[in-house]
Amino acid sequence: MPPPEAQGCPLPIVPLGKTHLSAAEVARILSLAGRLLRDEPALAATEAFGSRVRPGLVSGPSLFYEDHSEIRLVREWTAEAYKYRIALLAGDGDLLAVLAPRELSFEAYLRDILALGNIDIIAVMPDTGGPAVPMVRKLPDDEAAMSAIVSRARGAGSLNIVPYICSGGTWRFAAEIAAQSGANIRVAAPPPRLARRINDKIWFAHQVEELLGRRALPPTKPAFGPTALAGCVARLARTNAQVVIKVPDSAGSIGNIVLAAETIRGLDISGVRDLLLSLLDTIGWRQTFPLMVAVWEAPVIMSPSVQAWIPEKRNGPPVIEGIFAQMIIDGDGKFVGAERVEPAPPWGEQLAHEALMLATLFQELGYFGRCSFDALLVGAAGADVSLHWVECNGRWGAVSIPMTLANRLVGDWKRAPFIVIQHYNDVSPKHGFDELLKLLDPLLFRPGAEAGVVVLTPGVALTGKGFDFLVIERDPTAARAMARNVARVLDATGAGRT
Question: Which domains are assigned to the chain?
Fold first, then answer.
């Protein structure tokens, strides 16, 4: 059963197992949370948005939208390809906002094949030039869209806003709906300032060090200007083979630049600075500081990601739902995605335990919603191994959405282990989604089945770049075999290539 805050919204939460914190650990968490809130009293503030708007979920309809435009450095085609992905969380009576054009075949697939329910789609016009405008700034200016949203909220007396990632714009939009409808609005995400902090790699690294100690991080430094950046990189390059620069508020690896130490040895500081600024310019960086500098560690045994759900404090402690890792099938790296892993003792227990400590800290600060924690297990087989936390994703993502969908489809995803595959193609022409379904029809998952393939995005139809799919099977070996079969089908027809 989902916890109380998830009832009325199809977000089934299934714990991985029991993980407990000691009294001493809880006391340390409370002490750190108290200090952070004293230093930044507005960290969890939502009062400016009115008494009818607060974090949480209530029974009733929800408005879902997946908008990547507020994540620094995200490419336009990525945002377009994933605009429907969060629809996999929606159900009967819910609303989904997407940028036009609509992909009617994918909507029919969600409704008629996956049987996720009747979802009302609100299509808003895309940008015609200049910087992308976030969805929550478009919707209030769209009379038809606002009329539909306000009417649904007024009729139900409440509305949940479920964003892919939260921003101040999300909360201002919620306040506008509350003002026009008189309904209670719940935002299934943290308060805006806290959301910004938690998705900042530098802020997260500082909290990891405060809570778990310096040993829980790779060697890491913030840089507050071009010369400081060059100095940090040069110092770390003296004793390490590779260094990484991270744009702290970007997502995943999009804002990362990995440097071999040998490329800067022999350069003076001004030469290092000029090289780094040039490299940053190639990824679209706009000269904003601070940046994070860290050692790019090797050898890496595993890159685990711990998926967590953080409820309102009155509804219980955070829930650790699963540990996943990036996966590659076959030695040539033919498929890339994620699958559940069970790290050898004691690493599985330590990953779950330390993630629970971090999630509990965030809950004490006022966090609500989906969260994941990315780590590295560093070391050589048979030698000393270290667990290092590298970033936090205070949002939905490429694992948490399929994981939650698998719970909806089979009741508990652990009974039907799944893998997520990202299948990209930069050269073939676009293919319609109906054609894709015909190709995969014998393999498609249908309600009541125990195995099959779920298409997660209509990306191939929209962008020609590829798509993501979920493979549900009786065990991981069978799932990998089915994933290979899917790739053979697509590659043989030109519908995709990894």
Answer: 45-189 (3.40.50), 219-295 (3.30.1490.20), 416-498 (3.30.70)
